[in-house]
Design goal:
The chain folds into 3 domains: 53 residues, RNA-binding S4 domain (Structural Genomics Hypothetical 15.5 Kd Protein In mrcA-pckA Intergenic Region, Chain A); 88 residues, Alpha-Beta Plaits, CATH 3.30.70; 79 residues, Alpha-Beta Plaits (2-Layer Sandwich). 21% of the residues lie in helices and 30% in strands. It has 6 helices and 17 strands. The strands form 4 sheets. Strands 7, 8, 9, 10, 13, 14, 15, 16 and 17 form a 9-stranded mixed sheet that branches. Strand 8 and strand 9 form a beta hairpin. Bound molecules: uracil. The site of uracil has 8 residues, from helix 5.
């Protein structure tokens, strides 16, 4: 069945449909050797479709990894300026994987990496409210009534945040360690939430994503998800596993 090119690329697990549109508009996609830069055309997946010259392999095995991202790695698949990306930490993985969402360059912690575009897009959808827990080292020490503002929802330039679950873990001199759980995924959200109560985030680590945590995975290392963990993610994303 003929389908839009962006859909075929997304189904191959290379990028979300939106990102696939970007690849097409950037002239990085060819069909039977011809660069296609329009989004409207329909093609058969049996045609020779290439991204950056590499043919799509539609039946690529789906793989899922949990990475403990260190600081100093970009959460992208590729960087035009040649900076280190999280994929540099998985050199043995041959599939065309990419990270699920983003952690800032200077944020560390749990990042899922996969080539399952359908699952990744499902999990990123705001409808599913996937909890993400972070530990932030902030300064100065926030007062409880400031933390209450985060618990209630705080106004940022892109609108009110959903209520967060916030726990003061520890204080040392002028710094506090705060655990914060949010389910939205706005850009630099945790840093901006603390900035809105007058705190600077000195270090940020994601320690949980849904029920997954970093147990047994050292910084810079990764492990495959178990079948049960993948099934649970499918359940959360409300998608039937193929
Ligand atoms: N919130 C942030 O501010 N940064 C991240 O990397 C993740 C969440």
């Amino acid at each position: 069945m003929a389908e839009r090119l962006q859909k075929i690329i997304a189904q191959a697990g290379i990028a979300s449909r939106r990102a696939a549109e970007g690849l097409i508009l950037a002239g990085r996609v060819t069909v039977d050797g011809k660069v296609i830069m329009e989004l409207g055309g329909k093609y058969e997946s049996s045609q020779r479709i290439c991204v950056d010259g590499k043919p799509l392999t539609l039946a690529e095995e789906k793989v899922y990894f949990l990475l403990n991202k260190p600081k100093g790695y970009l959460s992208t698949a590729k960087d035009e300026r040649g900076r280190r990306t999280v994929l540099d930490l998985l050199p043995e993985v041959k599939q065309r994987v990419y990270p699920l969402g983003r952690l800032d360059n200077n944020t560390e912690g749990l990042l899922l990496i996969s080539n399952d575009g359908q699952l990744m897009n499902g999990l990123l959808h705001p409808r599913y409210k996937v909890n993400k827990t972070y530990v932030a080292r902030v300064a100065p020490v926030p007062a409880e009534n400031a933390l209450d503002k985060l618990r209630q929802g705080i106004r940022l330039e892109d609108g009110l945040t959903a209520p967060a679950v916030v726990r003061l873990l520890d204080t040392v001199e002028d710094e506090a360690k705060v655990e914060i759980t949010i389910h939205e995924g706005r850009n630099r959200q945790v840093r901006r939430m603390f900035a809105a109560i007058g705190c600077d985030v000195r270090a940020l680590k994601r320690i949980r994503f849904a029920k997954l945590n970093l147990a047994g995975v050292k910084r810079g290392h990764y492990r495959p998800l178990t079948d049960a963990e993948v099934a649970e993610l499918y359940h959360i994303a409300g998608i039937e596993q193929a």
